[in-house]
Amino acid sequence: MSGGRRMSAMAHVVAVCGMPGSGKGEFASVLIDAGVPVVSMGDMVRAEVRLRGLDEAPHVFGEVAADLRQAHGDDVLAVRLCDHVDSLLANHKVVLIEGLRGTAEHAVFTQRWGDAYRTVAIVTDDEVRFERIQQRGRSEDGDRAAFEARNAREIGWGLDRLIANADDVLDNNQPLPSFKAACVAWMAEHF
């Protein structure tokens, strides 16, 4: 492993990616139930919005994420996250990073953890994703225009390439119990 970082024997970092509303949070909940610590890149942006005292409107989250990348580089969230993940690896054999969105972030993680790092893409049809987003009611979610703008922004960061090149792909065009069963099966196969 590069950089002299110490990890427990056979420790792994998994990053889950997917378009907005694809089911990354549901994947994370399955791993949490299995005792895997999860760090969320989206939570980092939500915290930054609160720190700046901004209204939690759908467009604000994207603007803050873009502003962070412009001011500090496309890999800013990944760089900020690495030491925390390393601290979790001292006591856990797997750590999940939820919400990998950009190729710059992926490059940081690959360099940091090498063969101990893998990606999982959650793929879900656009209409299914939009319906789920409308139902979940997060402050960063909005109408169809906000959904399309968010999709375009995240594709601009390279999310489509991350999905296409992921180590593993899980289809989430199915009822939630079936998807969760697929996540459990994935965990059993890999860890």
Short description:
With about 190 residues, this protein is an alpha/beta fold. Helices cover about 55% and strands about 15% of the residues. The protein contains nine helices and five strands, in the order βαβαααβαβαααβα.
Task: Describe it.
By secondary structure, the protein is of the alpha/beta class. The protein is built from nine helices and five strands. It has a five-stranded parallel beta sheet with strand order 2-3-1-4-5, sandwiched between helices. Helix 1 packs across helix 9, helix 2 (41-51) crosses helix 3 (58-72) and helix 4 packs parallel to helix 5. The chain is globular, with a radius of gyration of 16 Å. The two termini are 19 Å apart. The model has no long low-confidence stretch (mean pLDDT 90).
Summary tags:
191 residues, alpha/beta, Rossmann fold, five-stranded parallel β-sheet, 5 strands, globular
Query: What share of the residues does DSSP label as strand, in percent?
Result: 5-15%
CATH homolog superfamily = P-loop containing nucleotide triphosphate hydrolases
Through-space gap between termini: 19 Å
* Domains, number: 1
Radius of gyration over all CA atoms, rounded: 16 Å
Q: What form results from the Cα inertia axes?
A: globular
The largest beta-sheet arranges its strands as 2-3-1-4-5
The largest sheet, given as strand count, sense and whether it forms a barrel, is:
5 strands, parallel
**Number of continuous helical runs:** 9
For this structure, the CATH topology is Rossmann fold
For the secondary structure, the number of strands is 5
